[in-house]
Amino acid sequence: MKAMKALILHNQVKADSPKDELDVLVQAAEVEKALIELGHRTTVVPFSLDVDKAMRAIRKVGPLFVFNLVESVAGDGRLIHMAPALLDHLGLPFTGSGQEAIFVTSNKLLGKKLLQQAGVATPPWLAAGSLEQGAAADWKGTYLLKSVWEHASNWLADDSIVHAADIGELRARLEKKNRGGDRFYAERYVEGREFNQAILAGELLPMSEIRFVEFPDDKLRILDFRAKWEEDSFEYAHTRRSLDFSAADRPLLDEMRAIAGRCWQGLGLGGYARVDFRVDRDNRPWVLEINTNPCLSPDSGFFAAAERAGLSFTALVKRIVDDCLERFGKADRRVEE
Length: 337
Known about the structure:
Blueprint (H helix, E strand, L loop, with lengths): L3 E8 L7 H19 L2 E8 L3 H11 L3 E4 L13 H9 L8 H8 L1 H10 L7 E3 L13 E7 L4 H4 L5 E4 L2 H12 L5 E5 L4 E8 L2 E2 L3 E5 L12 H5 L4 H5 E4 L7 H17 L5 E8 L5 E7 L9 H8 L4 H15 L10
Parallel strand pairs: 1-2, 1-3
Antiparallel strand pairs: 4-7, 5-6, 5-7, 8-9, 8-10, 8-12, 10-11, 12-13
């Protein structure tokens, strides 16, 4: 019997790409090691705006399935759905969520509206030029100016924080932020704790909490770009992940897990995903966003949760692949004749 053909698809990056984009190369290398260990014959293909080139490369390989690691195209998160759309066009099974779920969750405003419709609490927000959704009863407060399409931490910095006295001031700051050509919205800052719920093939993995250690009282406890990528920064050194909780947290964890399950079902997620929460001072959870293509690096929060559940990295990859083949009805064709 021939070895099984697997293709790893990731967004094309350059040597001078930002750290968060270069990380996909780490993911691709680790996934490839795991797939080889599982008996697959692997090919890695970068995905760019040259869709015809990618199509030719994929057809040349003729894979049984594609491990989709594409997080953006040409550095633009709003194009993330192009990869699964192409794979659908080619009729190939691929890991993770389908193009529809990836599109609606990558557009944070659309995702928030769908969460509201599903009865899931998400912080009030203001979109540029619109008040039709997410309106707050009182606009006075602290807001974060977030990218509509990119991962929130990619853009969060000191100039993303707005302390608004009223909606007029908030709108003015938002309009100024949008003059650069990118799309941003204002989201009410939830003072409290931050949690991540990893989901693997519909199974809720152990919850993790992002803990902000020894932050000054006047510094917002948020997971910004520095906290995730700049290793010599205060934020990086004082932002830590924990998967250990007291018995007193059990009711809160159970509530968030139930909400994450509703998100999985309601938004049609598949493969693996992560639901990000903030919990306010009244112990009420709010869903910030859903990541349908969370980082799979060995030092990522997703793998930390999988490891706590007893899975090695190779076992995690196997679960993702098995789920992919089962969902696409290819489980009986795992070995080529």
